[in-house]
Amino acid sequence: MPVASATAAVWRPHVTVACVVAQGERYLMVEEEIDGRLVYNQPAGHLDDGESLLQAAVRETLEETGWTIEPEHFLGVHQWRSTEHGEGVVRFSFAARPLAHDPMRRLDLGIRRALWLSRAEIVALGSQLRSPMVLLSIDAWLAGRRLPLDTLSNLLAGPARP
């Protein structure tokens, strides 16, 4: 098989990150418009080329909520087929603590607002949750899952990055 054909045949899922940011019994959520529909998610997004998973989690949370966070734990990996675009998603979920908020920061396109909701309020959103991974990661946090961040390795070339 020619090299170009072999490369084209390799399946490539979307690699995403998400953060469970808890403040008491409330969780940082994002209200966003996707394809004309209002949905709710944790701060989450795609991994960019050249950045570590932790860097992506910190960046996405800031871009979508205006919150600076510190990742404290790795919660796990979820694999899912998106009902929005039909493609595979591999999501790395983290738990983080909020450090500071910039209410004047312009949020990513499509993001309506960041808000803090209880688990019950999140459950009540039902089909407005962007994916089943929202509750899976919150429930992992509530069940006490706390994997060390060094469970993940970053072997990217260049200066040491978290």
How would you sum up this structure, described in words?
The chain is α+β, with helices and mostly antiparallel strands. 22% of the residues lie in helices and 40% in strands. Strands 1, 2, 3, 4, 5, 6 and 7 form a seven-stranded mixed sheet that branches. A hairpin with a 6-residue loop joins strand 5 and strand 6 (88-101). The longest helix has 13 residues, at 53-65. 28% of the residues are buried.
Topology as H/E string?
Answer: HEEEEHEEEHH
Ends apart, CA distance between termini: 39 Å
Mean of pLDDT: 90
Please state the structural category: alpha+beta
The proportion of residues forming helix, as a percent range, comes to: 10-25%
Beta-strand content: 35-45%
In DSSP terms (H or I, runs of 4 or more residues), the helix count works out at 4
- Which residues form runs of ≥5 with pLDDT under 50? none
Radius of gyration: 16 Å
- The number of distinct β-strands equals 7
Largest sheet: 7 strands, mixed
What's the shape?
A: globular
Topology of helices and strands:
Elements: H1 3-8, E1 14-23, E2 26-34, E3 37-41, E4 44-46, H2 53-65, E5 67-81, E6 88-101, E7 111-118, H3 119-124, H4 133-142
Parallel strand pairs: 1-6
Antiparallel strand pairs: 1-2, 1-4, 2-3, 2-7, 5-6
